[in-house]
Amino acid sequence: AAWPKMILIVTSIVLVMVGVTFRSLALAVRGCLTIGMTILFVQGLAKITYCDNYFGGLGFASISSTDGLIWLVPPTVFPLLVGIALDYDIFFIARIVEFRTQGLSTRDSILAGISETGTIITAAGIIQALAFFGLLVGDIPVLNQLSFYLLFGVLFDTFFIRTLVVPSIMYWL
User: Fold this and answer.
1) Segment 159-162 long-range contacts (CB within 8 Å, at least 24 positions apart)
2) What is the per-residue pLDDT across 34-91, written as a single tens digit (0 to 9) for each?
3) Are residues 145 and 2 in contact, defined by beta-carbon separation less than 8 angstroms?
4) Dihedral angle at the C-alpha atoms of 141, 55, 133, 88, nearest 10 degrees?
5) CA gap 35, 41 in Å, rounded
6) Is 142 in contact with 72 (CB distance < 8 Å)?
């Protein structure tokens, strides 16, 4: 019952924090939307994995269960994924804003921001993904699902959202 309240509170905190930090409502809304994309992607992937058994033929016992999602996993993972995605987002956006303040064009600021932060964000994402993968191969279903959410959330955010979606949106903004 508290799940919608939790989403509202976390989203409000992110909006206020990013909006105040960068003095921009547009950047705050963009941040919530891109973090939301990561959350929705991983939730959908977990649904087709654990409820529909879409990947059951791959041979991983940890993702072959048709028992469905454990109720505790989505609300537990939500603030963790928001924190990870927000960390990457603020690190990247701060560099873009810094380069823009120095007088670079929008395009050049985005390219310089990607150049400066891309390897660090990618390395951090890979390290986290490797750490979370270890729990995925275990025997405890709740840890398998927690790991699944974190593993694929971090990979999607690192390799799709931060490298393609955020730079595209920032260019439009």
Assistant:
1) 159/122, 159/125, 161/34, 161/37, 161/38, 161/85, 162/88, 162/89, 162/92, 162/121
2) 999 999 999 999 999 888 878 777 766 667 666 788 888 999 999 999 999 999 999 9
3) no
4) -110
5) 10
6) yes
pLDDT at 61: 67
Give the tokens for residue 56. 């059951």
Q: How many CA atoms lie within 13 A of 155 on its CB side?
A: 13
How many residues are recorded in the chain? 173
Closest CA to 166 of 60, 2, 56, 38: 38
Is the pTM for the entire model greater than 0.85? yes
Amino acid symbol at 16: V
Helices marked H in the chain — which ranges?
Answer: 3-22, 25-46, 73-101, 106-136, 141-156, 166-172
